Amino acid sequence: GDEGRHQFTLKTAKETLTGKYGEDSKLIYDLKDQGGELLSLRYDLTVPFARYLAMNKVTNIKRYHIAKVYRRDNPAMTRGRYREFYQCDFDIAGQYDPMIPDAECLKIVHEILSELELGDFRIKVNDRRILDGMFAVCGVPDDKFRTICSTVDKLDKMSWEDVRSEMVKEKGLSEEAADQIGQYVSLQGGMDLAERLLQDAKMSQSKQACAGLTDMKQLFSYLQLFQVTDKVVFDLSLARGLDYYTGVIYEAILTQTGPVPVAAAQNGAGEKAEEGVSVGSVAGGGRYDGLVGMFDPKGRKVPCVGVSIGIERVFSIMEQKAEASAEKVRTTETQVMVASAQKNLLEERLRLTAELWNAGIKAEVMYKKNPKLLSQLQHCEDSGIPLVAILGEQELKDGVVKLRTVHSREEIDVSRAKLVEEIKRRTSDV
Amino acid sequence: GDEGRHQFTLKTAKETLTGKYGEDSKLIYDLKDQGGELLSLRYDLTVPFARYLAMNKVTNIKRYHIAKVYRRDNPAMTRGRYREFYQCDFDIAGQYDPMIPDAECLKIVHEILSELELGDFRIKVNDRRILDGMFAVCGVPDDKFRTICSTVDKLDKMSWEDVRSEMVKEKGLSEEAADQIGQYVSLQGGMDLAERLLQDAKMSQSKQACAGLTDMKQLFSYLQLFQVTDKVVFDLSLARGLDYYTGVIYEAILTQTGPVPVAAAQNGAGEKAEEGVSVGSVAGGGRYDGLVGMFDPKGRKVPCVGVSIGIERVFSIMEQKAEASAEKVRTTETQVMVASAQKNLLEERLRLTAELWNAGIKAEVMYKKNPKLLSQLQHCEDSGIPLVAILGEQELKDGVVKLRTVHSREEIDVSRAKLVEEIKRRTSDV
């Protein structure tokens, strides 16, 4: 449940902490009285990263960062959305030639989503300058760019009719402008589309759009070298709401529906089963060349491009997949359990365990004086430990260990001297 | 500096965040108005862990956790102490036979401190029950146990005279009781000391002390099997202030002084040089069998034992050591830089980089169309990238890559088909 997710929360009700630390309790940090500053929890990892670069005068860096962020949103647990959740960001900061780091970010998203085998996916790409240029040539007033942009951003959840209606009725855009936008945002393609739009009578009037389109061509040429164009689509409807983007923007979505929710399947609710668990966007990012400068006293800019992976959602999909396939998820890295079939061998078990630890083997031993062999084997089955090293009086006398493969139940005698090597050999693929 | 340490802080002044997210700004989490709860930042990882076990009805688990904790202390930056810092905890929860998981915790501390090569260290061990029993037989009133215990805890920083004086003058203990305590807390030893104290006329009157001493003997017998008794000392002066400990307690300290601070060495301040940078305690922990029950509605207990590694301090020592030895700290895991000596080879560099990435090699490429070879090599020198794969027109024609070892400057031609294998071979020890 949600409580489990929030297991190691930073925020803690004060009464949870008091009375646990004795005299050290005075060291507990209350947020309330730290000088009256109005504090917020971080919303993403990008703004803190930009501030860090500015404050430490870092002009180039490439790094990843996995940490929690907080959003005052309505949590949707079944879709893997929480108010407190981990993000995983990768960013490249520095003054470089156009689109090379941008292409690397897309390659990384492609690699991650491919390797995780989450099903088919699509990476939509657009450029803030193309969007702004498009708005300009379609007759959107300058002061409406941002608000119209955030309406366009809803096209992945709303029909064009609803988006159009919001632009015209709520945001006061002319019908003509809205319809022109409608023609552009339906376009999808690759390098060819960028070339076509560079020739487009209206689009080519915008310097901004042309700069964006030229870079988009360049980007696709690098993506070809990286062999990732199979999944990347230049999509003019991709807007992304955040104000800080200045160039290329992108978003990865899973295109397959997830496994059928257990409840729906049990109810035999056929019409629900088709829908499955859609999780939508699993990664997104873009170029933000102005953000670092906003934190620098002298406004010095550091161009940045980055990507954020929604790892909680990724995990949620992987868990659902594992459940659906009834596949046992290995919950341990332990290679071998040191066990005994007879009584009074705790000391021998501990001695062998330490030997294995010292040789770099991940070994476990039951913390019982005389555990039953069956319960030792059962623990290996449950947690996915692949091997059991079994000690008995006879084995000790002969200087051997009975090495059992949990999966096949095969047992062989291995001399004590060869044990480490044998365990390594048998678990090298795990 | 301190600012750099706090790079990715969770707390953020609200104005830092506003104006960056457009319409999404409404999702930013303010701590102030979340229902008027008085919130605190976590002080350690133990209490949140215990609460997690209770709330999720987990009755046995073994896990580590690395995360930030917060203490309203006076930071001492040179000694690696901050108000916001990472802790690294390892805990074993569950109902097991006495002292087996406790011994494993000590083995882990021993292993970590040995492998990190921080210099010689000592792990002091004691037991809350031995302390309480000792206080009882020395005539400390029941209601003074905790406060006297926290005074004893200061023996690592204060002389016995000062500790005695605090007990007698500030805390109102009788001189006789203080002197009796003084005799015990000067004792250090191993299993032999536990045996001797079990025979001690006074100590043996306390049931609690006897239980603690019997377990201490057992603990040392397991520590012998784990071959760690060379560093572990049963020390009756070890108290540890936290209220939640119920059994064995321990603390690891580095016994060597650190390297000479740069400033002192430059000043030729000989008398300071001897002192060096002492960091004191680098790990600590103990058994806390009652904590989980405090969070369980029905008071169900889950016995736990754990250890906390002060990783910030450990890092601070490692950094100082690296500085003192003028040893270059490798700041990257990159195995190879894909470079070129000639112009117009960006596409070939990107193609090869993707090839290497796809084969699982950690490769880097400069994000410039035509970088100078010298600056590519310099980057490898600076960041510790061990290999450079150099492409040129001739190499492309011949289907080879010039593989340069940065350290030795040796260059060999490697056929494109063998490149991955050769890079793996040459970086397998890195």
Automatic annotation (TrEMBL), chains A, B:
One of its GO terms (molecular function) is ATP binding. PROSITE patterns: AA_TRNA_LIGASE_II. Residues 64-318 form the Aminoacyl-transfer RNA synthetases class-II family profile domain. Belongs to the class-II aminoacyl-tRNA synthetase family. The keyword Ligase applies. It catalyses: tRNA(His) + L-histidine + ATP = L-histidyl-tRNA(His) + AMP + diphosphate + H(+). This is histidine--tRNA ligase. GO terms for cellular component: cytosol; mitochondrion. L-histidine binds at D44, L45, T46, R71, Q87, D91, R240, Y244, Y245.
